[in-house]
Amino acid sequence: MTAHRTLARDHQAFRIGDPAGEHPIWDDGGARQAEGRWHEVGSGVIYASEHYSTAMLEKLVHFNGEVPPNQHFIDITIPAGTSYEVVNPDALSGWASFGGDVARDFGKAWYTERRSAILFVPSVVARMERNIVFNTSHPDFKGVTVSLETPVWWDRRLFD
To answer: In whole angstroms, what is the distance from residue 137 CA to residue 160 CA?
Structure first.
């Protein structure tokens, strides 16, 4: 179902959020307060996307197609040697279901067993793309670095 490995080279990811929001962009506070597809309430995780465009799509789906206010992005560098696991969506039947129980159960086991610092998961919004779940309590997480926050430019044609 999954493969446990370490990255052979640095890897890039992106996260979009509101720097003036309740939680900083690079923070697990929101995940600790509300469950998500790959985690339970109380889990110290942070979600990001492998590609900037996927991060935008993920943000838009959570804002129901409206322009999200005051959004900024960070560029995340995951260093070579970081432990990771990959979810094979073909081997995890029901991962994309509306309730998310199958994915959440998988993520709970991954998180509590501290199997790796990052978990590559399929995007529900863009099935051929991947998101990344960071386990902030894993020792490898401390090597991850982020850039300064940069404003997101939303093309108006996305909302016409």
So the answer is: 42
**Which residues are CB-neighbours of 64 under 8 A, at least 6 positions away?**
none
Question: Would you kindly state where each structural domain of the chain is located, as residue ranges?
Answer: 2-154
Q: Which two tokens stand for residue 123?
A: 């995007």
Task: Please state the pTM of the whole predicted model.
Answer: 0.93
Give the DSSP letter string of 89-138: GGGSTTTTSSS-HHHHHHHHHHHHHT--SEEEEE-SSSTTSEEEEEETTS
Handedness of CA 123, 125, 129, 133 (dihedral sign): negative
β-bridge pairing 118-122 and 83-87: parallel
For the cut 60, the answer to whether the pLDDT of residue 2 exceeds it is no
Amino acid at 121: V
Per-residue pLDDT of 9-51, as tens digits, reads 999 999 999 999 888 899 999 999 999 999 999 999 999 999 9
Contacts of 98 (CB under 8 A, 6+ apart): none
Class of domain 2-154: alpha beta
Helices (H), 19-71: 29-33, 52-62
In whole numbers, what is the pLDDT of the chain averaged over residues? Answer: 92
